[in-house]
């Protein structure tokens, strides 16, 4: 989808000037479901030693997201608007799935006992999801995204992202260190912590969806065929 020209208005343009073509939406859904959800999430839950509780805790959102994702494989043009809602929910779902995987690693493979580790990990997960939503909101409405888009060298976001990301990973690492001396398990927990942060950022698509719903006229003026079937856009 070609990048439209900016218009003079109070609302930030960043979301609308970075819209993807519906066929790219379809590709994204395939990659996220097969790679990030099935390969990196479901397979570890199926591996030995198998644990029924962790499996069912993780597989339910997997099934729901696969069923929901079918519409974006079949009709990505028609469901172009709800794609952003789907990706936001998918980010949360995969982050939760990785949380379940990390819990299985610690409770089943390492032998951790008691609810404390799970409770602290859950709090860290929610904190990561909330942080990225707030961070994304402020970056958009402060105009920072637009300024960065115009001049990428004008702002360095890495210190903010790096500090928050390293804080989350360090917290997970120290938490796993207190209950396990297995270097392999700590590395795996650290790796899934990184993946959780990535999915927490993908979850900001929820705000993109809300932005689109709240600014229909702005969207229509920039993409007249948005959300319409492919055949109607070709007329």
Characterization of this structure:
This protein is 74% helix and 0% strand. It is globular and about 60 Å long. It has helices at 22-46, 52-74, 82-110, 116-141, 144-150, 158-179, 183-202, 205-214, 216-222, 230-233. It contains 10 helices and no strands. Mean pLDDT is 85; it is low at 1-9. The chain has 235 residues and is an all-alpha fold.
Keywords:
0% strand; 74% helix; disordered N terminus; mainly alpha; 235 residues; globular
Question: Brief description of this entry?
Answer:
With 235 residues, the protein is an all-alpha fold. It is 74% helix and 0% strand.
Helix content: over 70%
Q: Radius of gyration, Cα only, in angstroms? A: 20 Å
Q: Strand-and-helix sequence, N→C?
A: HHHHHHHHHH
Main sheet: strands, sense, barrel: none
List how many beta strands DSSP finds.
0
The low-pLDDT segments are 1-9
Q: Structural class of the helix and strand makeup?
A: mainly alpha
Question: Any chance you could write out the topology, listing elements then pairs?
Answer:
Elements: H1 22-46, H2 52-74, H3 82-110, H4 116-141, H5 144-150, H6 158-179, H7 183-202, H8 205-214, H9 216-222, H10 230-233
Helix pairs in contact: 1-2, 1-3, 2-3, 3-4, 3-7, 3-8, 4-6, 4-7, 6-7
């Amino acid at each position: 989808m070609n990048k439209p020209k900016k218009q003079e208005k109070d609302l930030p343009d960043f979301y609308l000037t970075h819209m993807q073509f519906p066929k790219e939406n379809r590709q994204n859904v395939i990659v996220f479901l097969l790679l990030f959800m099935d390969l990196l999430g479901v397979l570890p839950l199926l591996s030995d030693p198998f644990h029924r509780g962790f499996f069912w805790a993780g597989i339910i959102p997997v099934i729901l997201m696969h069923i929901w994702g079918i519409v974006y494989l079949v009709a990505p043009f028609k469901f172009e608007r709800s794609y952003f809602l789907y990706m936001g929910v998918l980010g949360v779902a995969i982050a939760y799935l990785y949380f379940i995987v990390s819990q299985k690693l610690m409770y089943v493979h390492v032998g951790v006992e008691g609810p404390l580790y799970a409770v602290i990990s859950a709090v860290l997960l929610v904190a990561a999801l909330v942080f990225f939503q707030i961070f994304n909101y402020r970056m958009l409405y402060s105009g920072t995204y637009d300024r960065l888009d115009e001049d990428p060298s004008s702002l360095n976001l890495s210190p903010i992202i790096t500090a928050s990301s390293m804080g989350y990973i360090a917290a997970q690492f120290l938490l796993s260190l207190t209950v396990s001396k297995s270097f392999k398990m700590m590395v795996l927990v650290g790796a899934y912590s990184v993946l959780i942060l990535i999915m927490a950022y993908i979850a900001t698509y929820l705000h993109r969806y809300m932005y689109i719903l709240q600014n229909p006229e702005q969207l229509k003026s920039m993409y007249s065929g948005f959300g319409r079937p492919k055949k109607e856009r070709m007329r």
